[in-house]
Fold:
Amino acid sequence: MSLSNVFSIAGSALTAQSMRLNLVASNLANADSSTSATGDPYKARHAIFTVTPVSASEPRVAGVRVTAVAENTTPPKMKYDPGNPLADAKGYITLPNVNPVEEMADMISASRSYQTNVEMMNTTKTLMQKTLQLGSA
Structure:
């Protein structure tokens, strides 16, 4: 693998982790909302990553990409609040199935993955610069 391939692989990972961070931010922003634009409770969404092969005949990986955004299938939370105008006949309101603790852990993981890929790109850039300096000495 050439050093220039590192940039495309790490770049694809940066794009995927950025999408993951955006989804986490959206989930956290809607954690306490009682309805979405459709009128139903918000459902947490998560990125599904897939590796991108170099070609069908070669097993080497050329990057990663987000192939789908899946909605969390856990049931929504029910909260007893009979005074709320959105409450059902039994006095319960339906809240999103977002778990803020899981979302924060996911955010930390995505952030660290993003940072690791940036550091890998910087290290590769430094190695390429050092290689060029060897040729001019």
Summary: Strands lie at 45-53, 61-71, 77-80, 92-95. The chain has one domain: 3-121. The mean pLDDT is 89. Residues 3-121 form one domain.
